[in-house]
Amino acid sequence: MSAYAGTIATAGAAECCWHCGETLPAGEIIHARIAGQRRSMCCYGCRAAAEWIEQLGLADYYRLRTEPAPKPDAREVGASAWQRPEIFRHVVRDLDADRRETMLLIEGVRCAACVWLIERALGAMPGIVSIQVNASARRARVVWRDAEITLPKILETLSRTGYHASPLDSQALNDVRRRESRDALKRLLVAGFGAMQAMMYAAVLYFGGNEALDPSTHELFRWLGFLAAMPVVFYSARPFFTGAMRSLRARQLGMDVPVALAIALIYAASLIEALRGGGHVYFDSVSMFVFFLLAGRYLEMRARHRAGDLTDALARLTPPFADLRRDDGTIERIGIHELRVGHQVHVSEGGIVPADGALLDEQCRVDEALLSGESAPVTRRRGDMLIAGSVLVEGPAQLRIERVGADTALAGIAALVERAQAERPQLARAGERAASRFVMRVMILTALTAIAWSYFDPSRAFPAALAVLVVSCPCAFALAVPAAITRSLAVLARWGVLVVRPDAIQSLAETTHVVFDKTGTLTQPDLTVSNVETFNGASRESALRMAASLARGSRHPAARAIAAMSAGDHVEQASDVRSQSGLGLTAFVAGRELRLGRIDFALAGRADLHDCEDAVLLADDTGPIAAFWLTEKLQPGARQAVDALGAQGLQVAIASGDSASKVEDVASRLGISQWRARQLPADKLAWLADLRANGACVMAVGDGVNDAPVLAGADVAVAVAGSAELAQASSDIVLVDGRLGSLAPARTLAKQTLAILQQNQRWALFYNLTAVPVAALGFVPPWLAALGMSMSSVCVILNALRIGREEATP
Amino acid sequence: MNVLLVMIPLSILLLLGAAAAFFWAVDHDQFDDMDTPGLLPLDDSTHHDD
Fold it and tell me: How far is B30 from chain A (nearest CA, A)?
């Protein structure tokens, strides 16, 4: 039984939608029969999706899932337009005469059960050859036979199941990341196999000794070691050689140059020794050397790729189609790729601007929140530029396209984000620089050893120099950072804390101040009734029931909060309900005219009540019946999260654009003494800059929509999941499900990670300082050099695995 | 020691086989999705056609 199904069962299926988990609306409840049980649904969309899943025989999904399903939206799929040849060519690749392949970006994939559901729902359709869903990248690769099924049909099936999918550019099929990670995995495995074999053959030489083995067997095992090391050096280690060549051509000395030099030297020297028939060979050491270095790189690449998956969100901001207005006034739907500069485009109200263009109409209002972070729609006049990806709030509008494709402002931002994420973490770069400096020093030391020995005893110069080269191990340096970071990222991901930028680990550990946004971060969008006062002897229950009869039909947050108080009770039907926008509701209940709303509206000046200015009043013709005080609902766990952060000695503050009384109320309930109300994004930013100027390391937590500049101005930006996609993509850390409670443990973990990282680096330094002089003096036999080198690396990895061990999960 | 002349080539052959199998697995997406396969045993619906 999955964790999620358990929560649903305990929460009582009556209160929330069986499909998407949202609270059921007041009023008539929709039902559906799923797996023989009657389940409540919040809307017809959810019911259709649930019944469709049931009809496919996939109701098991509800048992397997760990997160609620995505709520199907009524958005237009526009599926048929994908059949247009101009668009089709861009998103689909022909595998052969009949089979087609495409990469879909799927929204709403939340847990492994979603993957299961999508694979089953599509896989059962005739004509689908294969489907693979990658949950972390939110992508699906679909292969189908064109004669039996079409792309629009596939998209339609997905949208009926509740997932909105859009095909990506067919270049996404030649996935660079995928090829890179497969290559790395193969090289790592070859290095691992080679190292094991080389070590096995070397063990015979080490422990057999010259007495037990006759010379020919001795010789045989040497050459076997050479054979085993060959694929490691020539296949697995190739990235080091090509990297070294590249940096030499650019006249730089990167990490790859000394590493490639060391590999080549050890291998060549061992080959010479083997040919001469004397001394020691180090084929096992060189294989292990490559294996450990590749392991470090592989771990680091995995962390980088996970972060890169989030940039896919950007692909979703621009619509795939545009409505082209022809000269004769007709409108034709074309693919975004066909759009050219100078085209006239029609955007309907609620639509997304397809490319940057100048407005031809008198004026319109657009929401540019995804780009600028301003949540309020802005007015644009004739000739103003509209930016691709913004939403037309008040329209329609005609545009003349001025920039398309990669030239648009949105594409520029996307490229910036992508570049920032392709960069390797600073910690890792610093670690590599340390390792490369170290290798250079070892090279010099090796040369010195060889020169010194050639004065005293030329016959020992070569073995001693080789021993120095082998026993000194940059692997421990190169592994120290990736191992620690990868481990901490994995632990954090399990806690619902997704680290987008691995550098954030360091800033997270150094945080001194936390600044929260209020709405959407600390509080929920819903209101709740905090206090009820009754007048003229009315009972609390009857007042609530009366108010609920009026409020049931309304979607206003205050009305929903009042109706929720009497959910499940029998409530009398109200008749002739009229709502007056911004004021309140009137209706007849049991023959009495009731008013619910602001004080001046409900009482209509007939009576005067003090201290009720902020309340919602229920009144009839004779006077007030009850007053309801509403407050914002706190996010579950917000109080504990704030307490835990405070207990770690952090300064917690709220910066909100809301009014002072509301912010103060929330701040006092959370025990936060520092708060600022009526803050514009610029004010918040100035405050952060002020704090940082005084030496504070600031973490900003927000839902991203109107906090984008604030998040950008903080040392660590934390976005709550469900916030704007672009804000998520440009923030450092994303909290899944808005679990604020994970913040404090995450900081502890980050501190532990840095501590362990330092331990690892100190250990690597200590090991090398002890081992190298001994090797230089010629006291280290080859088996000890190999053992020392690998054990120092294994110690680093084992130490990194301690991260998150003692910590209790939040 | 003559047995070595049989066993060592045999071990190398086995190793080549293992490496080939692994390469095949990597190329056939066996390491791309590490989440869903864990759920498959929990699925007790009747149609295991694929």
Answer: 11
Percent of chain A surpassing pLDDT 90: 6
For residue A104, the cross-strand partners are A140, A167
A59: nearest CA in chain B?
B45
On the question of pLDDT at A475 being above 80, the answer is no
Chain-chain contact of A193 with B44 (C-beta, under 8 angstroms): no
3-class DSSP state for residue A502? Answer: coil
- The DSSP output letter for A233 is I
Which amino acid, A256?
Answer: D
DSSP A676-736: E-S--HHHHHHHHHHHHHTT--EEEEE-STTTHHHHHTSSEEEEETTS-HHHHHHSSEEEG
Q: Considering only CB atoms, which chain B residues are within 8 Å of A185?
A: 26, 31
| A-chain residues near B15 (CB < 8 A) | 193, 197
Q: What is the pLDDT of residue A373?
A: 46
Compute the average pLDDT of residues A651-670. Answer: 84
Residue matched to tokens 């490496």: B19
CB A231 within 8 Å of CB A286: no
* DSSP bridge partners of A397: A347
Put simply, the answer to whether B45 touches A134 (Cβ < 8 Å) is no
Ranked by mean pLDDT, the top range of A551-555, A711-715, A792-796 is: A792-796
Give A103's contacts (C-beta < 8 A, 6+ positions apart).
A91, A139, A140, A141, A142, A167, A168, A170, A172, A173, A175
Distance from CA of B8 to the nearest CA of A (A): 9
Q: Which of B5, B7, B33, B50 to mutate to test the interface with A (most CBs of A within 10 A)?
A: B33
DSSP string computed for A632-649: EEEPTTHHHHHHHHHHTT
Contact A661, A689 (CB under 8 A): no
C-alpha distances out from residue A428 to A296, A434, A727, Å: 10, 10, 25
* Chain A residues in contact with B1 (beta carbon < 8 A): 217
Q: Looking at chain A, how many residues does it have?
A: 810
| Interchain CB contact of A489 with B (< 8 Å) | no
The distance of B45 to chain A (nearest Cα, Å) reads: 8
Q: Which of A251-255, A613-617, A744-748 has the lowest mean pLDDT?
A: A251-255
Q: Smallest Cα–Cα separation from A262: which of A477, A492, A509, A16?
A: A477
Other Cβ atoms closer than 10 A to A270 = 25
Q: Is A190 on the interface with B (CB under 8 A)?
A: yes
Does the beta-carbon distance from B26 to A186 stay under 8 Å? yes
Q: Which of A671, A26, A769, A687 is nearest to A468 (CA)?
A: A769
Instruction: Show the CA angle centred on residue A84, arms to residues A82 and A89, nearest 5°.
Output: 85
Residues 6 or more apart from B43 whose CB is under 8 A from it?
Answer: A60, A64, A116
Partner-chain contact A134 B50, CB within 8 Å: no
- What residues of chain B lie within 8 A of the CB of A113, using their CB? 39
Residue pair A152/A83 in contact by the 8 Å Cβ criterion: yes
Average pLDDT over residues A496-514: 83
- Specify the DSSP element, H or E, that contains A102: strand A99-106
- C-alpha angle A178/A166/A377, rounded to 5°? 115
In this complex, the residue of A58, A123, A132 whose CB is nearest that of residue B33 is: A132
Distance from CA of B33 to the nearest CA of A (A): 6
> A-B interface: how many C-beta pairs under 8 angstroms?
59
